[in-house]
């Protein structure tokens, strides 16, 4: 009763887990803000490990006001989206992860950088390793072909959302970004398993 909440994407949020995260946030960040190195430590990410680049991109997407810190309100807003957001909102959030320089579009280099991070994480976690896979460059080309509707070499937010909604393969390639909650929970499980 009141301990879990069913969300639209069929994941349950455990209230105790959220309370524990708040306590951990306050304990590790008495100043009330998370810096990048604290964000990585908070989620058990090795600063030089396979998930480091991805964590940096997530940090940037969580940092709504661009001050290079995440305060608790930004943290809660991001968690709310991660756990409860609909597909379009999650795609919009994912776009922020891909748009590394914040200029409003994703170019080939930004796309390649994120796809490469995703591949390294999947290889490290042994996910999808039995499936034949495309190279990073092949994935980048296929995504650009599917979503760069005006063929200008840049993916706008609208193209990103529409393309992912219309092409199940593209949406599947974004799965790691579309499920940052799962990534966060897996990082926490790994950290707990190492103790």
UniProtKB/TrEMBL annotation:
InterPro entries: EF-hand-dom_pair, EF_Hand_1_Ca_BS, EF_hand_dom, Recoverin. Pfam families: EF-hand_1, EF-hand_7. Gene3D superfamilies: EF-hand (1.10.238.10). GO terms for biological process: visual perception. Residues 50-85, 86-121, 135-170 form the EF-hand domain. It comes from the Eukaryota. Keywords: Calcium, Lipoprotein, Metal-binding, Myristate, Repeat, Sensory transduction, Vision. One of its GO terms (molecular function) is calcium ion binding. GO terms for cellular component: cone photoreceptor outer segment; photoreceptor inner segment. This is Guanylyl cyclase-activating protein 2. It comes from Cyprinodon variegatus.
